[in-house]
Design a protein that fits this description.
The structure is a homodimer. The first copy, chain A, contains two helices and three strands; from the N terminus they run E-H-E-H-E. By secondary structure, chain A is an alpha+beta fold. Chain A has a single domain, classed as Phosphoribosylformylglycinamidine synthase subunit PurS (Mth169, Chain: A). Chains A, B: It comes from Terrilactibacillus tamarindi.
């Protein structure tokens, strides 16, 4: 069993209204030195190991976890975890 | 200017219905070797450097970004980015 961490972020060119709202709230709370906020997703998977694990993870991300029109993703595979 | 990456995850003991729904969808798509899915948030901040940067980041997370009753967070500060 492998643990996989997937990080999904909006592409640079895509507006992030949620991040803007958080930034404005932080400014209202007097944290005026926060210049930019971008909000993405962080997904942890536990997945049984297979020969084509990386290919499979990319399929999962492309088909289900990320919207590749507006989002980028990257992932890390951690060593064996106890099942 | 520092770039800060914040990872927010649900505590182990907290149910994750969104993750469960994703897991079931993945099983329906025949990815049956995915045993667990947990969904969290990934936030990128750009923040002007200050003497008490770490203290400030923890305040931001505690007050605004994370709900510490049900969520854990960790963060990484990256080196200077060009503003």
């Amino acid at each position: 069993m492998k643990k996989v961490k997937v990080f999904i972020t909006l592409k640079e060119s895509v507006l992030d209204p949620q991040g803007q709202a958080v930034k404005e709230s932080l400014h209202n709370m007097d944290y005026k030195n926060v210049n930019d906020v971008r909000i993405g997703k962080y997904i942890e998977l536990e997945i049984e190991d297979s020969a084509n694990l990386h290919q499979q993870i990319e399929e999962l991300c492309d088909k289900m976890l990320a919207n590749t029109v507006i989002e980028n993703y990257r992932y890390e595979v951690l060593e064996e975890v106890q099942s």
